[in-house]
Design a protein that fits this description.
The chain is an alpha+beta fold and 104 residues long. It contains three helices and three strands; from the N terminus they run H-H-E-E-H-E.
């Protein structure tokens, strides 16, 4: 092989390795697949809130990280906060729910 070809192969290998490392998950950062999964979970939780007549979906914020759902916001009744947590726990893929919803 010529030197130029070796350099080109090394550059391609370095590029592939860098891409693989950049997409790898860490304790503080999700991998690409986990990010997509979490976005789907968040969407399903919000849709379930919207479908429930007692929970006001616009008052509750939903964030998901590695399957752990965090709820925050304000509701009028104490039962609405616990109902929101129960709904979130019922969504496939949810590992745990941290309920930071407060009563006004």
């Amino acid at each position: 092989m010529k030197i130029a070809q070796r350099i080109a192969h090394m550059m391609i290998a370095a590029s592939v390795l860098t891409t693989m490392v950049a997409c790898a998950p860490t304790a503080q950062r999700e991998g690409t697949g986990e990010y997509i999964d979490d976005a789907v979970i968040t969407g399903k939780v919000k849709a379930a809130f919207a479908a429930d007549p007692n929970v006001k979906a616009t008052e509750i914020n939903v964030e998901t990280f590695k399957g752990e759902v965090q709820l925050s916001g304000f509701v009028a009744q104490p039962g609405d906060a616990s109902r929101a947590a129960d709904i979130a726990r019922g969504i496939k893929g949810v590992k745990s729910v941290k309920n930071d919803v407060r009563v006004k």
